Amino acid sequence: MKITTTLLGLIAAILMLGSLGCDEYGKVDQGRVVEFDKEKQTVTVIQDKAMDAQHPDYSILPAHTYTMPTERMERGADPKAGYRIKLDVDKKYVKLYNPDTQDFDELTIELIDVQKNIARDHPLVFDKEANKPKAFPVIDKDKKAITIYSERQKLLATFGVPDEYINLPDKTWDAGDEVRVYYKTEGVAIRFMNISKTDIFKK
């Protein structure tokens, strides 16, 4: 799986960079989207140190902001933004991006329920009657509990958080889309691929 994903990523990169000209190769930035301004057409990304969508390491700061390509053929689907960077149920913590400090917050969590090996078509996370995924995260303010589904980890987890965290925006607990950006000028995307919405990378 890892080899296949890596090869597919390399092929996509070669194809995308090929049209830029042999002497004018751009640079590549891959990571998770924490902000997307549809009106201004800007995207802010936390870079993946590992450059691997299946085994990411979102640890590089500061976040990088790019203007999106204007040509429709040079861009993928609009990305979903979210502040959840990492969920580790074994170590019982969640890593969040804090837009105010532009840094990471690591929050110790109280696990309520954890279910592993939950594929994206499992009844717990997929509504067969409506033929679409169920909406996550689920915020229960009365119980001060958050339910998250990670498709990459095949993990459905419910955990408790301190009082001061329960009223944060829903996107705090959501994971942004994984994207790849090609650029030559800092902050200006030449091409934009939304990996999370490219089915071949999900398998």
Number of helical regions: 2
Strand order of the largest sheet: 3-2-1-13-14
Q: Mean pLDDT, nearest integer?
A: 87
> Under the CATH scheme, which architecture of the largest domain would be assigned?
Beta Barrel
CATH class of the largest domain: Mainly Beta
Cα radius of gyration in angstroms: 18 Å
Head-to-tail CA distance between termini: 8 Å
Integer tally of domains: 2
Instruction: Pick out the low-confidence regions.
Output: 1-8, 17-23
Query: What structural class do helix, strand and pairing data support?
Result: mainly beta
Q: What fold name stands as the CATH topology of the largest domain? A: OB fold (Dihydrolipoamide Acetyltransferase, E2P)
| Run of helices and strands | HEEEEEEEEEEEEHEE
Helix fraction, binned, reads: 10-25%
The strand count comes to 14
Strand content: 35-45%
Largest sheet, strands/sense/barrel: 5 strands, antiparallel
Shape: globular
Written description of the protein model:
10% of the residues lie in helices and 41% in strands. The protein is mainly beta and 203 residues long. Strand 5 (93-98) and strand 6 form a beta hairpin. It is globular and about 55 Å long. The protein starts with a helix and ends in a 9-residue tail after the last strand.
Short description:
It is globular, with a radius of gyration of 18 Å.
What is the fold's blueprint, element by element?
Blueprint (H helix, E strand, L loop, with lengths): L1 H17 L8 E11 L4 E7 L9 E10 L16 E5 L4 E6 L4 E6 L1 E7 L9 E2 L4 E2 L4 E3 L4 E6 L4 E6 L2 H4 L11 E6 L5 E6 L9
Antiparallel strand pairs: 1-2, 1-13, 2-3, 4-5, 5-6, 7-12, 8-9, 10-11, 11-12, 13-14
